[in-house]
Write a structure and sequence with these properties.
It is built from three helices and three strands. By secondary structure, it is an alpha+beta fold. The chain is extended, with a radius of gyration of 25 Å.
Amino acid sequence: MVATLYTGRPSPGHVPCESTRTGTGVLRTCNTDGMRSVADQLRQDTRERVGRLSVPERIELALSLGRDDLSLYMRATGKHRDDALRDLRAQRARGRTHSGAAAPEQ
């Protein structure tokens, strides 16, 4: 049985769903293989937009994103710039793991 979630004509992106009765209710499954998520579309748009930037523009974008992140962290923690930078650097250092491939042979 195919259950439709609309009345009238289906939209162009409509995907029919199947409903199956279970002991506790109705299980509805939809085949969404052909659908793209909003997140996928945003990632593609961002890649295309950044791809059109020149190298200096990309560097400026990266630096501005870092400044924005530092500012957000400072506001969230109530810390001043130097303390926030120290925290973030320590957190980054703790998160690193040494590569076994780069370890000296013994």
